[in-house]
Amino acid sequence: MTRTEGARDAPAGPREGKRGAHEYAGTPPGRTTAPGPPPGGARAARHRPHPAAPPARPEADDAAPPKSPRTFPAFPTPRPAEPRPRDRRHTGAVDLTDRPGAGAPFAAAPRGPGHDEATTRLRPVPRSPRRTAAAAVCLVLGLGLVAGGAAGTWLAGGDSAGAADRFAAGAALWHDAPVDRLFPPTVEGKKAGPGGADRTWTRIAVAPDSGCAKALDPLLASVLAPAGCARLLRATYTDATRSEVVTVGLLFTRAGEQTMTDLRTRFRTEKLDQRRDLMPRPYAAEGTPAEGFGDDQRASWSLTVLDDLPAVVYAVSGFADGRVITEPQSAASATADGATTAPAQAGLGHTALAHTERATARLRSLARPDTEER
Fold first, then answer.
1. DSSP code of 22?
2. 69 within domain boundaries
3. Interval 116-141 mean pLDDT
4. CA distances (Å), 359 to each of 236, 336, 369, in order?
5. CA atoms lying within 13 Å on the CB side of residue 296
């Protein structure tokens, strides 16, 4: 068994020696080649003791300190990209000289001492006749609006002063105006009757001027009390056939413009002029067709509160034969389409309304002479 092991290990020497000779064949002279493996083969080499490690070299006193681990700086946070300003071309960067045969795209201005080649020449805007006309029209309209506003302001101021004067003049009409101007002897009513018929009324009596205590119903007097009662004038008329009678009343108040405006608004809003319990009383003159014209004979009425004059105008109508009316009707209802009551069929609503409108126009004409009398 030992021989067998020796026989196996014998050829290893020449192979190892041959390998060592091949490896170190190029070793220069004077240099020792590395020793080959020891005899006995690889197994003997494994059991061969290793040489001890050489002793550690003492550290020098001036040895360099150990290096610290290398650190890298953190990357900065990228900033948002800022828009780069557009580079403006410097003066003279654009060649504005005329090229041969290119024509003249701009209107050439005469070059004088103050001519600047660096200034871009602008294309002139051609004048259009339509634009010129439109500009002229706008100018005229603008001047007209300014002048109209100034005139309106002046007229408004003048009209306010005139309205105050007329209001003051209206308060004195009851004793300054002639009776025939307040109550004309004859009143013409063109298209004042039913169906647009012409009517004519004749004055038959004029009541002495008085207060309002006995001439008005207590309820109507209480409603008109805020305006006060300066004087009440009344007159009674009859038509051409003497079949109807009507009393016209002019009540002059002591109130100012604002009070009259508020009273007029209340009558319109609450429709007080259409209430039967607020009917005015008639004036029954003895020895006239209106002698039997009492409270029970009232058939229709109309009442208007003025706000431009200190006055209340009313008219109350009835039949001349003295018949009793159980269902009187306001002029607004009696003149409406389709009205079939006795006052409406007889035209008494038209009569009351016509006298109220004409008496109002006469008062305004006397206080303001530029107003046409109806």
1. H
2. no
3. 68
4. 12, 22, 15
5. 5
260-287 tens-digit pLDDT: 999 999 999 999 999 999 999 999 999 9
Residue at 151 is within a domain: no
Amino acid at 61: D
pLDDT at 261: 96
193-197, 198-202, 311-315, 348-352: least confident range: 193-197
Is the residue at 39 inside a domain? no
Mean pLDDT, all residues of the chain: 77
In the chain, alpha helices (H):
2-9, 12-23, 41-46, 129-171, 173-176, 179-182, 218-224, 257-270, 331-334, 342-346, 348-367
CA dist., res. 368 & res. 306, Å (int): 14
**Cα distances (Å, whole numbers) of residue 151 to 1, 84, 140, 338:** 150, 60, 16, 47
Tokens representing 263 are 């009273």
Q: Tokens for 97, please give them.
A: 């000289």
**Distance of alpha carbon 159 from alpha carbon 12, whole angstroms:** 146
Q: CA-CA distance, 21 to 144, in Å (whole number)? A: 128
- Structural domain that includes position 335: 173-367
Task: Give me the number of domains the chain comprises.
Answer: 1
Read out DSSP for 210-261?
A: E-STTTS-HHHHHHHGGG--SEEEEEEEEETTS-EEEEEEEEE----HHHHH
Contacts of residue 346, defined as CB under 8 A and 6 or more positions apart, other chains included, come to: 244, 299, 319
Is position 106 within any domain? no
Residues 337, 321: contact at Cβ < 8 Å? no
CA distances from 364 to 18, 351, 368, 369 (A): 155, 20, 6, 8
Residue 272's identity, in one-letter code, is: L
Written as one letter, the residue type at 271 is K
Q: Is 12's pLDDT higher than 50?
A: no
